[in-house]
């Protein structure tokens, strides 16, 4: 750990490496790992729990007055009303892990009054450590990283995550991919959103988008991206995205090209944009959207004249 780093970032690195050691030991005999299912296609293992416990113990030993928001245990640990909150995903990419597919990571972010100040994403299979502190840049293994310099979408590699939960809008995602695939050099689905964001920060991928993500999936990665010179928000380009379950990240030039393509698929798109998509046959309306469209159409009608029925 470096003496040049902020003390909180040093503690987060210590916690991430402790979790990574647990994950790497378990990966030697992954078939012996006990697995349970939170919901269909959403798995949790004893390794997730052990890694999360190691992270929380490390953080609270150093900062007992801080709050904790963790994927598996929520806010049951730490102070309940602290301005300092650690946001933890102990093993992002659990499905990859239990199949022995070596794309997963530990994600730890520290938020002060709701704003991410420090971030660590640690890939234990490659021993790659991504770190950032607000205003101090983003780093991979102590080397400064920057987002990609590519300026045309046709040259870009874009990463994403496929929907996998019951109730996810699969048709919507297929339409998004059909829109993007012909316009890019390739679309990839590695399976760990925090690592996807770290790779955007490092310039390994030019952009990333996914819906259905939780705050612990994106908190650390969001700071890596912005400190590496990138932009991150929801599909319509709004920056206040952390708890909106929509994430789009890219270098500024590519972000500007992705927002017009993906914005119409956002749950925050205008009623007109949603209606245009439905007319194009790209996705069905939800009941909520149908009501929204009716309201919008009614408001666009001219006022009734005398003697006319409103």
From TrEMBL:
InterPro entries: IMPase (IPR033942), Inositol_monoP_metal-BS (IPR020583), Inositol_monophosphatase-like (IPR000760), Inositol_monophosphatase_CS (IPR020550), Inositol_monophosphatase_SuhB (IPR022337). Its EC number is 3.1.3.25. One of its GO terms (biological process) is signal transduction. GO terms for molecular function: inositol monophosphate 1-phosphatase activity; metal ion binding. Keywords: Hydrolase, Magnesium, Metal-binding. It catalyses: a myo-inositol phosphate + H2O = myo-inositol + phosphate. Residues 276-310 are annotated as: Disordered. This is Inositol-1-monophosphatase.
């Amino acid at each position: 750990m470096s003496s040049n780093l902020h003390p909180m970032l040093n503690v987060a690195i210590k916690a991430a490496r402790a979790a990574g050691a647990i994950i790497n030991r378990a990966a030697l005999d992954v078939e012996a790992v006990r697995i349970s299912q939170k919901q269909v296609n959403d798995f949790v293992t004893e390794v997730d729990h052990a890694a999360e416990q190691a992270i929380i113990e490390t953080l609270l030993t150093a900062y007992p007055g801080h709050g904790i928001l963790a994927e598996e245990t929520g806010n049951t640990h730490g102070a309940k009303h602290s301005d300092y909150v650690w946001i933890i995903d102990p093993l992002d990419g659990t499905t990859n892990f239990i199949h022995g597919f070596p794309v997963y990571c530990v994600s730890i972010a520290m938020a002060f009054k709701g704003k991410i100040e420090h971030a660590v994403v640690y890939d234990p299979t490659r021993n790659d450590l991504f770190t950032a502190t607000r205003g101090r840049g983003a780093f991979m293994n102590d080397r400064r990283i920057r987002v990609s310099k590519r300026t045309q979408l046709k040259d870009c590699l874009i990463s994403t995550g496929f929907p996998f939960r019951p109730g996810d809008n699969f048709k919507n995602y297929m339409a998004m991919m059909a829109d993007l695939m012909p316009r890019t050099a390739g679309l990839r689905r590695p399976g760990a959103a925090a690592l996807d964001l770290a790779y955007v920060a490092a310039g390994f991928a030019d952009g990333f988008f996914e819906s259905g993500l939780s705050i612990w999936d994106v908190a650390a990665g969001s700071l890596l991206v912005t400190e590496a010179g990138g932009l991150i928000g929801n599909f319509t380009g709004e920056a206040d995205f952390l708890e909106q379950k929509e994430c789009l990240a890219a270098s500024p030039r590519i972000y500007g090209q992705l927002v017009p393509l993906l914005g119409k698929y956002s749950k925050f798109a205008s009623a007109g944009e949603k209606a245009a998509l439905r007319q194009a046959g790209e996705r069905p309306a939800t009941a909520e959207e149908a009501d929204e469209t009716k309201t919008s159409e009614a408001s666009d009608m001219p006022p009734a004249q005398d003697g006319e029925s409103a």
